[in-house]
Amino acid sequence: MATALYPGTFDPITLGHVDLVERAAKLFDKVVVAVASNPGKKPMFTLEERVELARDALAHIDRVDVVGFSGLTVDYARDHEVDVILRGLRAVSDFEFEFQLAGMNRHLAESVETMFLTPSVKYTYVSSTLVREIAAYQGDIASFVPPNVEAELYRRFGRREQTQS
Known about the structure:
Layout (H helix, E strand, L loop, with lengths): L2 E6 L6 H13 L2 E7 L10 H12 L5 E6 L3 H7 L4 E5 L3 H17 L4 E5 L10 H9 L10 H11 L8
Parallel strand pairs: 1-2, 1-4, 2-3, 4-5
């Protein structure tokens, strides 16, 4: 049974992330979405909140588990007998870092492969950072995030009422 690990900070999970998980679920017997604690990035949401938001956003997909973790992704993969680390590539600019990371992971755990997936074209420009910034300025984020994430971001930042024209 092939298992893929899709690690990330997911601060918050976006429709681009959901798209990758939906597609990965067609390729693997099981997909583990591993939400990294990643304190160096100073996430807006706590690890527990990010895990819960991801669980809700991915509940419609069979054979997907969402877990929180800390430490090296490759250690988690090896300890949980994961076959593949799944990484998303939105643009060519992502490739250099991801390629280097894949090489390092292969050095640390030869038995774990890395696979790259690109998101659907409509999500190539979506990032959690941009979504948070748009929400902070009261912008419309409905086409970038699942409804549960949209509601939580608007709750955090407040949402002024849209004026009727």
